[in-house]
Amino acid sequence: MAHLMQMNSTDKLWKDLTFDLIALGVFEEPELTKLGQEVDLAIGGQITSAIANGDIKGKAKETTIFFAADYRVLVVGLGKKEKFDFEVVRRASATVTRMAIEKKYANLALEVFGSDVSASQALAEGVIMGSYQFLNYKKEDEDQFELVSAVALNADAAGIEKGSKIGVAVCLARDLGNHPGNVATPTYLANTAADIAKEGGMKLTVLDREEFTEMGMGALAGVAQGSDEPPKFILLEYHGGGTEKPVVLVGKGLTFDSGGISIKPGAKMDEMKYDMCGSALVLGVMKAVAVLKPRLNVVAAIPSTENMSGAKAYKPGDILTAYNGKTIEILNTDAEGRLILADALAYVSKHFDPEFIFDFATLTGAVLITLGHIATGILGTDDELLDRVKKAAMVTGEKFWELPLWDEYCEHVKSKIADLKNMGKTRQAGTIAGAAFLKEFVGKDIPWVHFDIAGTAWSDEEVPYNVKKTASGAVVRTVLEVMGV
Hints:
By secondary structure, this protein is α/β, with parallel strands linked by helices. Helix content is 35%, strand content 19%. It has helices at residues 34-42, 46-52, 86-103, 120-130, 157-178, 186-200, 209-214, 218-224, 277-292, 337-351, 365-371, 383-396, 407-410, 430-439, 476-483; strands at residues 8-10, 21-26, 63-67, 72-77, 107-111, 149-153, 203-207, 232-239, 247-251, 253-257, 297-307, 319-321, 327-329, 356-361, 376-380, 400-402, 420-421, 448-452. The protein starts with 7 loop residues before the first strand and ends with a helix. 54% of the residues are buried.
C-alpha cells in the first residue's frame, strides 16, 4: 500500500501553512481565483505574466510550475468552463498528485478547483486515487517516493472527509487486484473481509470446500476441484437500515485462472491474477460502507477459488449441479467465472430478500473487444435499475454501456443434455451469453444487473487517477453512488 490515507481541509490562510507545492486551477480564457491572485502576488506576478504571454491557456491536462523561495506553484488547466464537472476536478487533482510524486514534492496544498465547495469530495477522491502506487514488492528502487500530506484550502470539510474515505476504498480494491496469486488467495480475501467486518460491525461467514459442497454448491465445487489452494465462500452482512431489503453485491473471486483443462495460452497468463477484481471491487465497496456507515442493509457474497488443471480438475463434458438444482454442461473449463457466480447468485436469491442484486466479474474477453478498456459492459433484467447505474455514472465519471439480453440470446446457453451449457454460440455475443447464463440463477422478480469489468478492472488508458497496467478499482465509486452512500 502506497497512497495517501487522508486528505485534510483547513480554514487557515495559505500563507500560514507549510507545503512544498500549492496547486491552483484555471479555465480556458484564464482568470485567477481570489486565492490564485494572492499566490500570484506573492511570487511576483509570474502567473499573470504567463497568462498574458499565452504560456498558460487553461486547457485540460495543461500544467505549469512556478518557483518561490520555499515552495512551488502548480497551475492546472481545467478546460472550457461550460464543460466543467466533478470528473474535471478528479482528473485535475490527480494530475497534481502524479506530478508531485514525479518531482518529489511531499506536502501539497490545493484550492478546490472550480471555486465550488461542493466539488470537495471529487477533489479528495482525485488526490487519494492519484497518489496510488503499488510498491509492495519493490525493495531496491532508489526512485521510490511517497506523498506525505495534502490539504484542501477553503473546502467543505465533510466533502473532503467522504472523498478521502471513498478514495481509500478504491485503493484497497486496487491493492487486492495487484497482489500476485500466491498472495491474494481465497484465504487472503477472507482475511480482508474479516478486517472490514471488524471495522464496520458486520457479520462475516466463511464456508470452506467441504461446507459449501455439502450445501449443494456443485458449480463452485467443480471449479475448485483442480486446486489444492483452499477455496472459500465469503459472506459479509452490514445491517444499517433496519428492516429494509438489502442491496446484494456478488463478486467473482477467481484468484488465479489458468483456464483449467481448457488451458489458456502462456502469453499474458500472468494477468490472470486480475481475475478476482470483481471480488476486490465488492470488498472496496464494503470498506467504504464500513467507515461511512450508511443507513441501509448490504450483503456481499464472494465465491473464491483458483481454476487449475490438477489431477482432480473438472473437464469438458462434465455436468455440474448448481445450488438451485440446475444442471450445467461444461463445454469449456475456462468459462469458470460464471459457474462460481451461479452458486453465489442462487444462494443470495434464496436466503435474502434483495432490493436488487449486482454482480461483478472479469467475465469475458468479448467485452474487451467490444468496449476496450474504456467502458464496463452492463446487462440486466430491470430497466429502472440500469438507468440508476447510468445516472450514477454521470456523477462519478465512469463509463458504462448497456448490451441487450433478449430471449434469443438466452437460447444460446440452453443445453441438449443438461439444463444449461457454460458457453454460448461460437464467436457470437460472448458477453451477452455470459450474462444470459447468470440470469438463470437470479431469483424470480429480483432486479439484477451484471457488470462485465474485464476491460476496466485494470487500466490501459492514460487517466490521471489510474496507474497504467495496474488494477483500477473501477466501478467502486459508481456502486456507492447508486446505493446513496
